[in-house]
Amino acid sequence: MTTAGDMVYGAAEGTGGGCFDGSFAADPMTGVERWRDLCLGATQSVAVVGGVVYKGSHAHDCGRSVGGFPEVKSVRTGASWHLLALNVSDGAIRAWTPNTNGLPLGPRVLATDGAQLFVGGDFTTVNGRPQQGLTRFAAAPDATVPTRPAAPVASSVQAGRVTVSWTASTDLDDETLRYRVYRDGGRTPVAELSAASRPWVRPVLSFDDVSQAPGSTHTYRVDAVANGNASVKSVASAAVTVASGDLSYADTVRAHRPAFYWRLGETSGGSAADASGQGRTGNYVGTLTRGLEGAIPGDGDTAVQVAGGGFVTAAANLVNPQSFSIEAWVRTTTTTGGKIVGFGNSQNGNSSSYDRHVYMTNAGELVFGVYYPSQTQIVRSAAGFNDGRWHHVVATMGGNGMALYVDGAAVGTNPTTFAQRYTGYWRAGGDSLGGWPSAPTRSYFTGALDEVAMYPTVLSPTQVASHHDNALTN
User: Fold this and answer.
1) CA 469 and chain centroid, separation
2) Which of 56, 119, 45, 106 shows the shortest CA–CA distance to 84?
3) Dihedral over alpha carbons 406, 410, 416, 418 (to 10 degrees)
4) Could you tell me if 80 and 228 lie in one domain?
5) How many structural domains are present in the chain?
6) Same domain for 423 and 302?
7) One domain, residues 215 and 318
8) d(CA 352, CA 147)
9) Which pLDDT tens digits describe the chain residue by residue (474 residues)?
10) Which residues make beta-bridge pairs with 272?
11) CB within 8 A of 188, min separation 6: which ones?
12) 351: CB partners within 8 A, 6+ apart
């Protein structure tokens, strides 16, 4: 325990289920707790420097803490975050993420002279560099450099427009970074934008270049800057040719690199072909009617009608997708609702774990939901989409949070950046919905489905709009 001002700050170390592993702040005169940090992974020590609480621990699951992260043991080498910073006012996790290794715990004691943070423990590296047993962090200068951005992805699906997308970088002690976009190896940025990120929350960013002539070819690079410290520029994107006209709907989808793309145009057989070229086929299950007129005007590809429990399910499972976009076209007049698309742990039966889904309520509202950390998180549309017309539905989740789009336009967002952790199957047409807000009478949908696609990244608003618009001008 340590004191600062009129507060006492404590570190807790426990073993086994039900223990308290985090830290807390309390008034020593009244015993009233100000806040409690519920991270899992024993906390060995705390220190307060410059109005910030620093903790040494092996935190591996801070899903119940503001600004925190879900269980990381199975997804990140080194597993735990051994050093974290918290707000003195409310215990929220701040954007300060240096790290040590642990043999096995890492930091065991923190101390301060009022200006610096000293850390001692059973570690041999700090931020990946050799440093055994003792280290210190000074207040200034800020010499950390953001990580190098990955090569951006450039696509052009509408006349005169190039969309450049990339995943945000991170910095050890800066949350908001500035990004500079360069065209064709130039030294002067053609665009600049800023965005917040942390190692566990990295949004997908994008820039629309509308200044280049149709038919011209270009490449793009990106760097990240924090407090005047610039990363190395990314590798250049693959060359992109500026479109002279709007692409067909199918080519627009493929240009944005889906993980699978089920056009649902088969007239027989049990398999839904994957038009993305990735080989991730689907299986037709139950009662379906094939050969309906499709959603895309002028395209001869057909749609399917699901009813009475029929659906399409992925032939192979997927482990814990946390960044994705899921897309479908839907037409119905049902007043009993149902799940349109979603992720569940059962391939063919009713799932016991199920989220990352879009369902329709009895009133024709569209609801996008994930389950995290122990509750439903949703975005919902207005009612009335059971009007017998085709509607384009896209739901995205990742470092950008959650977003729901209907007919090319955003209808709502939610800041949640994680979903329930499990291995499952993407399905279209129905699955369990018990316990979800405004759950419809039926969990299996009755209506027409077409053009189902899933992307392993977050589509930008411009990309979503291009899908809808290019379908109408197909």
Assistant:
1) 25
2) 56
3) 50
4) no
5) 3
6) yes
7) no
8) 39
9) 999 999 999 999 887 777 899 999 999 999 999 999 999 999 999 999 999 999 999 999 999 999 999 988 655 545 689 999 999 999 999 999 999 998 878 899 999 999 999 999 999 999 999 999 999 999 888 889 999 999 999 999 999 999 999 999 999 999 999 999 999 999 999 999 999 999 999 999 999 999 999 999 999 999 999 999 999 999 999 999 999 999 999 999 999 999 999 999 999 999 999 999 999 999 999 989 999 999 999 999 999 999 979 999 999 999 999 999 999 999 999 999 999 999 999 999 999 999 999 999 999 999 999 999 999 999 999 999 999 999 999 999 999 999 999 999 999 999 999 999 999 999 999 999 999 999 999 999 999 999 999 999 999 999 999 999 999 976
10) 282
11) 182
12) 344, 345, 424, 431, 432
Please give the single-letter amino acid code of residue 167.
T
Q: Would you give the distance in Å from CA 466 to the centre of its chain? A: 21
With residue 468 as reference, give the H or E element that holds it.
helix 461-472
Rg (CA), the chain: 25
Residue 286 lies in a domain: yes
C-alpha 390 chain-centroid distance: 27
Residue 166: which domain range?
153-241
Question: Could you tell me the two tokens for 5?
Answer: 């001002």
Residue showing tokens 């990580």 = 147
Element counts in the chain: helices (H) and strands (E): 2, 38
Q: From the centroid of its chain, how far is CA 368?
A: 14
d(CA 203, CA 196): 8
